[in-house]
Design goal:
It catalyses: ATP + protein L-histidine = ADP + protein N-phospho-L-histidine. This is Chemotaxis protein CheA. InterPro entries: Bact_Chemotaxis_CheA (IPR051315), CheA-like_dim (IPR004105), CheA-like_homodim_sf (IPR037006), CheW-like_dom_sf (IPR036061), CheW-lke_dom (IPR002545), HATPase_C_sf (IPR036890), HATPase_dom (IPR003594), His_kinase_dom (IPR005467). The chain is α+β, with helices and mostly antiparallel strands and 696 residues long. The chain contains 22 helices and 23 strands. The protein has a six-stranded mixed β-sheet with strand order 15-19-20-18-17-16. A five-stranded antiparallel β-sheet has the order 2-3-1-4-5, sandwiched between helices. Strand 13 and strand 14 form a beta hairpin.
Length: 696
């Protein structure tokens, strides 16, 4: 009986991505001066597991690639090879390549063979103690413009002992009348040729089209061969293949070609396209790619972001708690069933107790189920050490990234949707916030800047703060730029908070030059919109010369909310319980009315604005319009306090949140809707949105 291995694929992919994260984290934490053998073993074990799993499931491309990585790591852990920064960079790039390969296989798309060939070549170079020549990962610093053989100094050109060529034809190459074998014959006529064919792209026989080329080659030709002769051979297929070539240099002018394998080093000549600084960046910014074009004239396509995981790992203690709660629920249900079979009025107290017990067990069961969906925020935070490492290297800055509260738990859906906005915010702190080392020293700061990513719970929300000790926001510059772009009136009077929030306006940017990291005037408005779509809010605190803090406030879960029901006329609304400060009746002497500005009331020495709910939502059946006869509910959201004028408080309850935007459209001041016990629909209020709506 055959076993369908496809049923295990999802588990393999999830474990492989976890292994890649562990490898990346381990490589970033390596201390090159004092290497911990256990750290290398951890990285090696992750690579070995991926290699074994991919071989088991028939993903030979992955297993072959990982085998080369494993060989390099094995030499490091045995002490046969020193751990150098170039080697770490090559391995980081290989982790990126491996992640892309797995994502392509998982999504059923084609693996980028040229990219795999480039990174394989880099690993081979490192294994041969060669000068690293490959991309060091998608986040690698941009290489300087490579030399061409035509402009090499004469004494250096004389040291060329041959060429290494990565040749990956496009599928249609054979249909153009070109034949790779003929090119190989011409190469063999120039020198000693060795070819290695890569079969990983060949489909099953049933799917094979004989007119398509699924092979790629690594060619090694030894001899005193000018680059122009190599170019001439591949000139006809320039637009029908991915091609990368590198010269082989002799380390001694007296070395014979028969000993080249021991006497040569490979140095880069032909530019191998660096990958964009991050696929995550592309998903949060609408800026155009600055990546150079391939020789074929086509820009490298940005890969789609991987879909969120369809499964979740759960601690067995959570499962045990859930099973116990189900057992308690079954016992309560049995008790109520017995009462129902022979019910008499003298058993009314037993019925009430049973229903109370059922309510308690249902609530505990609900909390247990929701707890299963909770994941530590470290699932998002784990990507940022790599981000900080690569961007600081690219920009020539010294940056320390601190992670605080990474074990804070939040709903799985929030974790998945929070990733892209956070990448954008951290990237901006690294690029725009932290100054160059010489600028920091001149300002009396340590040359190493600090970016802190912190998560903690506050009430029913999770708060995530991105803090840097950089240059901060210049209020005058922000205002001048907003006026210049016509975003605000020159006569407008803005508070500090309102001035800082100008950066969230579409098209706003103070970047002095465009980079592939940030600065095209798009993105921050998208970040705010994405956070608000999660039912959250974002705010900024900054001090010029000291740094900035961007705070994100999000609900712990997008599914269930503890709420307070309020009545406005015939309508019922739900207020998030965590937003309520207190409720009170207000006396006439505490009211203050400002013509054209609205109404306020005095609460412990502070005047708070009043929002009349029947006016905001146009409810004609409100019981009263006199502030002294109704009820004022004091609420807080995004640092703002106000009083909501309502008819009455109805009671507290947990409600299941339904997306209003998905089923109808987005309504300012409303974060969602729920279905009450009697089947009616109640709107769930968004406090910051209500304040904005009232101000309008």
């Amino acid at each position: 009986m055959s076993i369908d291995m496809a049923q295990f694929h999802q588990v393999f992919f999830e474990e492989s991505f976890e292994g890649l994260d562990a490898m990346e984290s381990g490589l970033l934490n390596l201390d090159l001066g004092d290497v911990n053998v256990e750290d290398i073993n951890t990285i090696f074990r992750a690579a070995h597991s991926i290699k074994g799993g991919s071989g088991t499931f028939g993903f030979t491309a992955v297993s072959d690639f990982t085998h080369v990585m494993e060989t390099l790591l094995d030499e490091m852990r045995d002490g046969r090879r020193k751990i150098t920064q170039p080697a770490v960079d090559v391995l980081l790039g290989s982790v990126d390549c491996l992640r892309d390969m797995l994502q392509s296989i998982q999504n059923g798309s084609e693996v980028d063979q040229s990219d795999v060939a480039e990174h394989k070549l880099a690993l081979d170079n490192e294994l041969n103690n060669a000068v690293p020549s490959s991309p060091t990962g998608r986040h690698a610093p941009e290489a300087s413009a490579p030399k061409s053989a035509a402009v090499l100094p004469a004494e250096e050109a004389e040291q060329i002992a041959g060429w290494v060529i990565a040749f990956s034809p496009h599928l249609h190459l054979l249909k153009t009348g070109n034949e790779p074998v003929r090119m190989f014959r011409e190469l063999a006529a120039l020198g000693q040729l060795t070819t290695t064919v890569d079969l990983q792209g060949v489909p099953d026989l049933d799917d094979l089209d004989p007119e398509e080329c699924h092979l790629s080659w690594k060619l090694r030709v030894l001899g005193d061969i000018p680059e122009a002769e190599i170019d001439e051979i591949f000139d006809w297929v320039e637009d029908d293949c991915d091609l990368a070539k590198q010269p082989i240099y002799k380390t001694s002018t007296s070395s014979a070609q028969t000993q080249v394998s021991a006497d040569i080093a490979i140095k880069p000549v032909t530019n191998i396209v660096p990958r964009e600084i991050s696929s995550e960046f592309a998903s949060t910014s609408e800026s155009e790619s600055n990546a150079p074009e391939r020789k074929s004239g086509k820009k490298e396509e940005v890969k789609a972001a991987p879909k969120g995981s369809s499964s979740i790992r759960v601690d067995t203690s959570k499962i045990d708690t859930l099973i116990n709660m189900v057992g308690e629920l079954v016992i309560t249900q049995s008790m109520l069933s017995l009462l129902g079979e022979h019910f008499e009025l003298n058993k009314l107290d037993q019925l009430k107790n049973g229903l109370s017990q059922l309510e308690r067990h249902t609530r505990e069961l609900q909390e247990s189920v929701m707890n299963i969906r909770m994941l530590p925020i470290s699932f998002v935070f784990s990507r940022f050490p790599r981000l900080a490492h690569d961007i600081s290297s690219k920009l020539g800055k010294k940056i320390e990234l601190k992670l605080v509260g990474e074990h804070t738990e939040v709903d799985k859906t929030v974790v998945e949707l929070l990733s892209d906005p956070l990448v954008h915010l951290v990237r901006n702190s690294l690029d725009h916030g932290i100054e160059m080392p010489n600028v920091r020293l001149a300002a009396g700061k340590p040359e190493t800047g600090t970016v802190t990513l912190e998560a903690y719970h506050r009430g029913g929300n999770i708060v995530i703060e991105v803090t840097d000790d950089g240059k901060g926001l210049d209020k005058d510059k922000l205002r001048a730029k907003a006026i210049e772009k016509g975003l605000i009136d020159p006569e407008a009077i803005l508070s500090d908070k309102q001035t800082y929030e100008l950066i969230f306006m579409p098209g706003f940017s103070t970047a002095e030059k465009l980079t592939d990291i940030s600065g095209r005037g798009v993105g921050m408005d998208v970040v705010r919109r994405n956070i608000q779509a999660l039912g959250g809010n974002i705010e900024i605190l900054s001090e010029l010369g000291k740094g900035s803090t961007i705070s994100i406030h999000l609900p712990l879960t997008l599914a269930i909310l503890d709420g307070q029901s309020i009545a406005v006329g015939d309508e019922t609304y739900i207020l998030p319980l965590g937003s309520i400060i207190e409720s009170l009746h207000v006396k006439e002497d505490r009211l203050n009315r400002v013509a054209g500005k609205g109404e306020t009331f005095l609460l412990r020495g502070q005047y708070l604005p009043i929002i009349r709910m029947h006016q905001i939502f146009n409810v004609p059946t409100a019981k009263t319009t006199k502030l002294t006869e109704g009820l004022i509910v004091v609420v807080e959201g995004q640092g703002l306090r106000c009083g909501l004028f309502v008819d009455d408080l109805l009671g507290q309850q947990q409600v299941v949140i339904k997306s209003l935007e998905a089923n109808y459209r987005r309504i300012e001041g409303v974060s969602g809707a729920t279905i009450l016990g009697d089947g009616s629909v109640a709107l769930i209020l968004d406090i910051p949105g209500l304040v904005r709506l009232a101000n309008q």
